[in-house]
Design a protein that fits this description.
Elements (H helix, E strand, L loop, with lengths): L12 H4 L19 H14 L3 H12 L3 H22 L2
Helix pairs in contact: 2-3
C-alpha cells in the first residue's frame, strides 16, 4: 500500500498564500433590498447595455452604491421571477 500523503499545515503562514482571496466589502455598498425604482433602473440599463456589467455597474452606482455582484444577482432573480410568472400564466 502506498504511503499516505502528508496533509498541508493549515495553521502555517505558507498555507495562507494558497487560500482563496475573500471578496472585499465596500463600506459604501448598500445591504437593503432593491427598491422598485432600482429594479426599473436595472432593467432599463440592461436593455440599453446588454450584459456589459461594467457599464451597468458604473451607471447604476453613480448614485446608488450597489456592488456589481449585487446587480448581477438581482438581475438573475428578476429573470427567474419573470419566467415563473409567465409559466404560471401559461405564456
Amino acid at each position: 500500500m502506498p504511503p499516505k500523503r502528508k496533509q498541508p499545515d493549515t495553521n502555517s503562514s505558507a498555507g495562507s498564500a494558497s487560500k482563496k482571496k475573500q471578496p472585499s466589502t465596500s463600506s459604501s455598498a448598500r445591504a437593503e433590498p432593491f427598491s422598485k425604482e432600482e429594479n426599473e433602473l436595472l432593467e432599463d440599463l440592461y436593455v440599453k447595455y446588454g450584459g456589459d456589467w461594467d457599464v451597468i455597474y458604473t451607471k447604476f452606482t453613480e448614485a446608488r452604491g450597489r456592488t456589481k455582484a449585487a446587480l448581477q444577482k438581482r438581475w438573475s432573480n428578476m429573470m427567474q421571477l419573470k419566467s415563473k410568472k409567465e409559466a404560471k400564466e401559461g405564456k
